[in-house]
Design a protein that fits this description.
heterodimer, A: 94 residues, alpha+beta, three-stranded antiparallel sheet, 3 strands, elongated, B: 198 residues, mainly alpha, 7 helices
Chain lengths: 94, 198
């Protein structure tokens, strides 16, 4: 029996954000935007969804008088990502 | 990218792989600190040897090594500035940072212990031994072979230092910093520029 794919992660942009963040300690919003080629508006919405699911932590602060947003994966996010990859592997075995 | 678009398992895995590669391809090491320390140690070694050989200064000629304190101050300023500007923090940089902190602490302790015991011949063997450790480890973590060779060279020179028990022992630092820091530093700088431009 197949595991159901996590609907939060089974979306291109959210999965791209999680895949980026899983391999780094933390990243600025601008870095994620550049690597995913997403628009700021769309990315903000998806980042918020990941935050609401508890998969990422978002910190907003000021750096040199400019607002700076940094994101990092939470332990819950790591678990969800691992489970998602396992479920994908199960699909591909068939 | 559309956030609502559903995609297949194969596409998902391909996306994960490509994003992980994008994150890892961010080459943040530009070689500045390798070049700074390489040239500072190079200059100190040459001046120290020159003062010992051509002047009557004797022991006080080692004061030239105080220049390393300036390099250390610049390093702290540079790292603080770089960390504030970095758009991404990765685990590799953090681990490499700890490797060099451990090296700095060990070097400081060895210099203190050996200077108290007065066995300066041992000092150079230990300095070369310690130079090799973080250099080789950084090369292994970054998968950058010139640093690994640099580390091995330092260890070979540490063995050589046993057989050079005159003031010429200072000169062993020159090939050590050339192989471990200066040449890899320029290679890292070239690699960094290449990663920015293309």
């Amino acid at each position: 029996m197949f595991k159901e794919l996590d609907p939060i992660l089974h979306s291109q942009l959210r999965l791209a954000v999680m895949s980026l963040l899983i391999s780094v300690k933390e990243a600025e919003f601008t870095f994620i935007k550049e690597k995913t080629n997403a628009t700021a508006g769309n990315l903000s919405v998806q980042v918020q969804k990941l935050k609401d699911a508890g998969y990422i932590e978002v910190n907003k602060q000021f750096k040199d008088n400019y607002p700076q947003t940094t994101c990092k994966v939470t332990p819950e996010g790591v678990k969800a990502f691992e489970a998602y990859v396992q479920a994908l592997q199960q699909y591909l075995k068939v | 990218m559309s956030q609502t678009e559903k995609f297949s398992a194969v596409e998902s895995l391909a996306l994960i792989e490509s994003m992980i590669n994008k994150a890892q391809n961010k080459y943040s090491e530009n070689g500045t600190l390798y070049l700074l320390w390489g040239w500072v140690v190079f200059i100190c070694a040459v001046v120290h040897y020159g003062l010992l050989t051509f002047t009557e200064l004797g022991k006080s000629s080692s004061q030239v090594w105080l220049l390393t304190l300036l390099a250390m101050a610049y390093q702290i300023y540079y790292i603080t500035k770089k960390q504030r500007k970095a758009p991404v923090k990765n685990y590799t940089d953090e681990i490499i940072g700890y490797v060099w902190v451990v090296f700095g602490i060990c070097m400081g302790l060895v210099i203190f212990i050996i200077s108290q015991l007065g066995t300066w011949q041992l000092l150079y063997a230990f300095i070369l031994l310690f130079y090799g450790m973080p250099t080789f480890l950084t090369g292994a973590i970054m998968r950058f072979t010139p640093l690994k060779f640099g580390g091995i060279l330092c260890w070979a020179l540490a063995v050589c230092s046993v057989f050079v028990q005159s003031r010429e022992i200072i000169l062993l630092l020159i090939p050590a910093v050339l192989g471990a820091w200066i040449i890899p530093g320029y290679l890292l700088r070239a690699k960094f520029k290449k990663s920015i431009n293309g």
